[in-house]
Amino acid sequence: MMTFHKLYVDESGESHWEDVTVTLEERVFAPPAKAIAVSQPEAAKRTMFLRLKAGWDEPIHPTPVAQKLICLAGMVRVTASDGEARDIGPGDVWHMQDTYGKGHHTVVTSDVDFEAVIIQFA
Q1: Pairing of strands 114-120, 67-73
Q2: Can you give the pLDDT of all 122 residues of the chain as single tens digits?
Q3: CB–CB of 69/88 below 8 Å?
């Protein structure tokens, strides 16, 4: 099992955090290699790289599209509109689904730039 951070919006427009567990199943993924533990695939539209400079601080906003962020370097603190904050650092996966409503606030908390891969679903 693996987990990731999910930021979603409820029917009243408030954003909240949730931990999501990913189920991995043993199967042949890249024959002739042996079976490995792998999740079910998700269709994606676009992939891009992102850099936020150290000290970067933004106004609160919703995400433009449903997307996953995989942190490569640096750290951000993301605060949902309900007030709960999470730190996202190297190796963390953050699924953004708060595409409307009050949104979230993000600030780079590390002394180095925050670098990530973004995978968009729409």
Answers
A1: antiparallel
A2: 799 999 999 999 999 999 999 999 999 999 999 999 999 999 999 999 999 999 999 999 999 999 999 999 999 999 999 999 999 999 999 999 999 999 999 999 999 999 999 999 98
A3: yes
